[in-house]
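2024-03-11 09:14:02 DEBUG pipeline.ingest accepted 1 chain
2024-03-11 09:14:02 DEBUG pipeline.ingest length=157
2024-03-11 09:14:03 DEBUG pipeline.predict start
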Amino acid sequence: MTWIRYETGEPSAPTLRLTDARGDCFDSHNLKGVANQVIFFAHASSCPACWQAIQHFSELASRFQALDCEIIIILPQSESPSFSAAPNIRLLLNPAGSARRKYNQLIEFDIQDKLLLCILDRYGAPSAAWIGGEADEPDLHERALQRLDYISIQCPE
């Protein structure tokens, strides 16, 4: 597990334009100036540890929402899992992996087969990222909440 912190004033992260689990188009540009974002690139919904992490995000959604945060889960598949299994979060499908390749460029070393979690501020700039081999890191969700709390008290300049 590796956490990376970005400096204030980083350029915006790539915009996500993907289909969600309901079949609707999602454009992360609509969140700029409105909400922070936690973006979790999972191995697959069939990965038990990833699915457990996704469900934990769903369980903690009210705490993330209290910090003006949208939780976005990106699955590298074309078929959607049951949306009702993870309410309160946005499940996006990216079978070609284009979004993941764009976000990999935010990291200065090779993370091809690793899990990736990115935390963006309300302006779409990266604030922190987590890279890990497995999704069962015990404090992943709490550390993401701590970073969002830090973002909430930063001066916007």
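2024-03-11 09:14:41 DEBUG pipeline.report Residues 76 and 96 are 7 Å apart (CA to CA).
2024-03-11 09:14:41 DEBUG pipeline.predict end
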